[in-house]
Specification:
about 15% strand, alpha+beta, globular, 4 helices, about 130 residues, Rossmann fold, 4 strands, two-stranded antiparallel sheet
Length: about 130
């Protein structure tokens, strides 16, 4: 095993998230299914775009039962946060074989009352828009 493997193996960041480790310096990466029954001070939900969440196959099939199951899963994800909840989505999805795809925010985000939302535009500047040469 390499020293990196040794370090990762001994790191508590890859231990079972249900363990009783109380270290505020840790970040837990988890699927929503794995997070059921757990809570964290802050939760970041990423890639909240139609086609990712809810899943594109469900949207294409127009299956309302499966869409409601996805909505319940979204609710599970939202309720994992004790204090802070961050919901994010990209404006563009860079696909090397087809070019950039403009993303549509998840339809589930429309369910939020506006007074609960603080919208941020992070990294919105286009570095390619400058007319200056390289």
């Amino acid at each position: 095993m390499s020293s990196t493997d040794d370090e990762l193996s001994s790191s508590s960041s890859i231990q079972n998230p249900k363990s009783n480790i109380q270290n505020s310096d840790l970040v837990t990466l988890s699927s929503i299914h794995q997070a059921k029954g757990l809570e964290w001070q802050a939760v970041f939900l990423i890639w909240l775009v139609n086609g990712q969440f809810p899943n594109g196959r469900i949207l294409e099939a127009d299956d309302q039962d499966m869409l409601e199951e996805e909505r319940r899963l979204f609710y599970v994800a939202l309720t994992r946060a004790k204090d802070e909840l961050y919901l994010s989505y990209p404006m563009m999805n860079p696909k090397s074989y087809t070019g950039d795809i403009i993303c549509t925010p998840s339809q589930f985000l429309e369910d939020f009352p506006q007074h609960l939302i603080e919208e941020w535009n992070v990294g919105g500047d286009d570095p390619w828009s400058d007319d200056e040469p390289f």
